[in-house]
Structures are given as structure tokens and as C-alpha cells.
Amino acid sequence: MQRLCDCCSNPATVHETLVENGVKTEVHLCAEHAVERGLIVPGPHGPALVVAKLLQGQLSAQQPARRAVKTCPTCGSSMQSIREAGLAGCPLCYRHFEEELGSLINRAQGGASVHVGRHPAHAAELVDRAALRNKLARELREAVSREEYERAAKIRDRLQALGGQASDAFAESDSTIAGEHEGEAQP
Amino acid sequence: MTPSESSSADGLPSQPSGVASTDHARTNSGAPLHASRLVRADDTQPPPDADCVLSSRIRLARNLLGFHFVNKASPPMLSDIVHRVQSARFGGPFAGGVRWVNVQATAPADRLLLFERNLISRPFVEAQHPRGVAISSDESASVMVNEEDHLRLQMLAPGLQLVALAERMFALDAELEHSLEFAFHPRFGYLTACPTNVGTGIRVSAMLHLPALRLLEELDKVQRAAKDLHLAVRGFHGEGTDALGDFFQVSNQVTLGRSEIDIVEEFNSVIVPRFIAYERAARRALLERDAASLDDRIYRALGILRTCRLLTLDEAIKFLSRLRLGAATGRLTEVPLALIDRLLLEVQPAHLARTTGCELGADRAARAEFVRRSLR
Lengths: 187, 376
Known about the structure:
The structure holds 2 protein chains of 2 kinds. In chain A, 39% of the residues lie in helices and 7% in strands. Chain A is mainly alpha-helical. Chain A has a two-stranded antiparallel sheet with strand order 1-2. The radius of gyration of chain A is 30 Å and the shape is elongated. Chain B has helices spanning 3-6, 75-86, 108-116, 122-126, 162-179, 211-215, 219-228, 260-307, 313-329, 337-346, 349-356, 364-374, and strands at 19-21, 53-62, 98-102, 132-136, 141-145, 151-158, 184-185, 189-190, 202-209, 231-234, 247-252.
């Protein structure tokens, strides 16, 4: 048999056991009286919450929530498709999946992670800047590990002046693709 | 095209279908593809370490910025890439002229011919999409357009001479870079379709002839050394092919974190010499142990090749390999090494079909006759 609200004849929807000065009391209240007594905060709860979420398109009763898959905005490749094919889709995949591809490359190359050697003339400035950034990043890590915070702050400022975030320094790279033209790739 | 029309005076294959030369690097488009650069005239100095090394090869992978990689590109985009590369300025080994072959429009037998001459890869023979290859007039260099990467620059030479090849390769790369913008990342280097090729994009390889190691069943020595040195060991025609006879291609796998010249120099002066030393030691051991058995093996092979009436490709390679061991060790003086190396190329199916007019694949009698005549 359904229990009724302690204060009215509506069915009770809130059931609480309250302990006050060592004395246990059970209360059974309808939603209205529970709000009035401060036992629940007004707002979408229970069925109302579900309706509100449905209206916002945040929840579907039939489907589990979907995780957004990161894709390369230039060619549409995902890390999964790259892994399956063993091939990236376009040069810009290396920027969009820098972290994921970086660790894959690192494993395949016996631990190597930074290019050494020839580069196109048009990338000379980028290469110099990347080399400087790598050097400063090393110095920054050293300074932090020795707790030389004043020196670290100066290095951080120099890194920031070079462009990019100081926190990127730990990635040991400058994730720019030489001469890239975002919009140029054709469908 | 009938065989007589397609063969040049020296019996070597003439120009395949789909060949065109570019305006800025004019070549005699009627000239036949002459004997491979892997084959020397018999009276020239033998190339370095030719006793154990058939050929050296360097490949660079390059991709154009602003285009999807080949696996993701549409046919119009692939055609556009071909056109862009065709209008680029070639230099270095192409100074003498550029011969363009539209591979898509080329007959299957001619594609196979280019493959046997190591000018294009096996996947490039069979692909369906728009693609082409530029071949230098001396056939020492080729540039495949739309293989796995937009450009695969390749240079070949007989024997072991990788450093000299690398210098010419870098000249070609630098010249192409004037007219083409290559995708490059400061951390990952030259960007390639396959993430394991990034960095220098270089593949350095040597085709080794290791008959004595095989006879002594010491090939596991080669496999172990290759594993320790992070090398790939492949077959006669490179990636995806089986070892034929006693020929093995070794190549580097690490392309990132070391400069091109470091990779080439180590390969040329440390890695390949190690395999050569193993093979030469095995040859000495064979001779010391039982020279008569070794001679018997070599001369029986010569007897078979001079008298057989039917000869499969595998048999031809097997017996030519024994002759090569004889010529390289001085046990066989009547057949020069250069002739053996030329036969190793000319007994391949597409070459044989072109030279003798036999049907592709139904060539055992023609091969036997061709080899008999050549060794007479």
C-alpha cells in the first residue's frame, strides 16, 4: 500500500530518516511539502529532469550517450582510420593528431622523436625556431627541476615571445607544418 | 606492337607504350630503354664490392603540401599531382633528360618491364589510379608519382656506392624543391603517408648476393645482425617480394632522429661491409673445406644452363647465382660477372617476352634457348 504524505493526502514521494539529538524519525512527504520543509531543492528532478534533458537534446532514452570522435578537419581521417589503414590521410593529420602519431612514431623509430637532417629551404626559419624552442624547453625543465624559479620565469617569457604557450615547451616541438595552407586541400 | 617492332637492334627492350619526354628536358623519345644501369660493359672496372653486392639503392619519400595523401586523394587530385610534378624542374641525375611514362596508360607487359628494371615498384604495376614515372636518360634515377607517397625519388647503382648516390639524390631533391612545396614538420620532418617513414623519408638498401652463407646454412647470422641493426630483409624486388636464389635486400628502417648522410654513411661503411665480411669468410671456408665440391657445383650449373631445353625463372636465378659465385671467387673465368648480372635481368618474364617474342608466363623454352645462346 502506498504511503501518504505526513502533511496531506497526496502520495508520499520523499522518504527520509532524520536523526535529531540522537532521536530517529521517519518522514514521508509529497514533493510539494518536501520543498516546503527544505528537504529537496526545487528544480528539475526525477521525471522532470529527464524531460528537461530530452528538450535540451542531451539525452536520448533509446541511445547511450555518444563520444565525439576527433577527425582531421582537412581530410576527415580519424586515429582509428589511420591505424586501420596504416596511413595518414593528409599532411595536416600530423598536426591534428600530433600527440597520438607522435607516440606511434616514437615506438616505430626506436625512441627517436625529433627530425634531424635535410629540410626544405622554405622551412628553414621554422626549423631554427623549433631548435631554439627545444633548447629553451630543455633549459626550462632543468630550471624547474633545480627549483630556480626566477630563471625559469625568464625562460618562459622567452618561449612565449617565440610564439605558442610555455606549457607547449614540454612537448618539445613547434607544431607548425611548413608553409601550410589550411584551405588549400581539395575535397 | 609486334616483338620485332618493339625490340631495338641490340635485342633489348625498346620504349614502352605511354612514354613522353618533357619539353624542358628534351630527350630522344625514340631511343630505346638501353641495358640497365645495373649492367656494365664487360671491359669497364667492376663496381665496388660487386662480388657480394649486386646493386645499391636510395629512395626519398616526399609529399606535396595542400593535397591529400594518395590513399585519400580523388582521381582528379591525383591527376593534378602528376601534372604538377611533370611541370617541375628536374636536376641532378635528370640533367641529361627526363622520360615520362604514363603508367596508367601503359600496357601491363610494359609496366612489368619497368618493374623488372627496378624503375617502379610492384604496387605501382598493379594500381589503378592516375600515376606516372619519370626516368632519367641513363636509368640511374626514377621518380614515381602517386605511389604510396606523392613522390618517390629513387636512385640505383651497381655494386656498393651509396655515398656517391646520396650526393646525386640530394641534388635532385634540392632542384625539385624549387618548383614543388614539400610537406614538412619541424618535429616529424618530411611528412609521409605511412607514419613510420617520416623524418628523412630515406630508405637506403643494398641487394646482397650471399650464396656461401646459404650453402653453409649461416643465413641466420644475417637475420640476427639485421635485427640488431634495425634493418629490414626483403626479396629480389624489394618490399613484398620473396628472396630469389641467394639474393637479399637489406634496408634501414629508422628514418627519424638521424640525418640522411649519417644513415647513408653508416649503411655504406659499417652495415653492408659487415654482411660482405660474413659472406667472404663463408666463401673462404667453402674453398678451404672442399674446393672440388664448390667447383662441381659451379660447373654443373654452367652445364645445365648451356644445355637445358626448358628453364623456369626460379631455376635460372638459382643456377646463375652459382655462376656468379664462381665468377666472383675466380673459380669460373669463362663467364664474366657483368654478363651474369645482365642475364639475371634478361631472364625475367617481361624482358624475355620483349626480347624473344614468347608469351608472358609461357616462356620456359624461350628462356632456355636465350640462356644457351648467351653462354655459348
